[in-house]
């Protein structure tokens, strides 16, 4: 609707403008504009017309001011929520990195322990080979004692091998958990970068677009963070389990074996050669042959 203002009749132009403003405001308030309202506007005096026009303009300006303040407060609130989410994700990433370092340290410790078990196994094989050579070279009056010691050593080596296999399985499991945590860390890092980009776009987005987007992102991040916490709790439980299993049966047997003394003849030679893996099986066959001969 176009309103033409006649400079010769300003009062009529103001009356038409007020009528249009009043009709539009009534329509926006979902109210009907009656014919009686139009007649009452036509019979308003100049003073009443100005006062009503003033009231209408002031109400419209007040509504506009409140609307702007509401939009500003909503933007500030959402901005603070995004910043809080950003800080939370940053903290989660730091925790994941810390847990990754702990897992790497634990893996290194278990690898060193496995190497020590392998060295102890080689030393035990050397000692068994020495006893086997002594038995083949001459009849030893202490053969029964040597047989007894040999059987004890076989049992100890068997227990050490079983302990080594258990440690290998545990190490593979820890490496698998470490790979999962690394993958989760990369995902969280990408999410962190995307959140930063969203923070840069917040001032350009309208409230109607941001509300469903923010709620869906918040629900998604909460679900993923709870999944991450479960993985970390499983990793911590693995760490506590291996800490309690430090003194396993294999380690106790190794310590008791170190304290075991074997009597040797002064004329018997000492061997410092370290046998490779698989020597224990060949020695067992030799030992079985000797045992059969002695029984015969």
List keywords for this structure.
disordered C terminus, 82% helix, mainly alpha, rod-shaped, 296 residues, coiled coil, 2 domains
Blueprint of the fold:
Elements: H1 10-28, H2 35-42, H3 46-137, H4 143-201, H5 207-244, H6 249-258, H7 279-295
Briefly, what is this?
Residues 79-106, 171-205 form a coiled coil. The chain is mainly α and 296 residues long. The protein has helices spanning 10-28, 35-42, 46-137, 143-201, 207-244, 249-258, 279-295.
Note down, in words, how this protein is organized.
With 296 residues, this protein is mostly helical. It has two domains: 10-65; 78-295. The protein is built from seven helices and no strands. It has helices at residues 10-28, 35-42, 46-137, 143-201, 207-244, 249-258, 279-295. Helix 1 runs parallel beside helix 3 and helix 3 runs antiparallel to helix 4 (143-201). The longest helix is centred in the N-terminal third of the chain and has 92 residues, at 46-137. It is rod-shaped. Residues 243-296 have low confidence and may be disordered. Residues 79-106, 171-205 form a coiled coil. Keywords: Coiled coil.
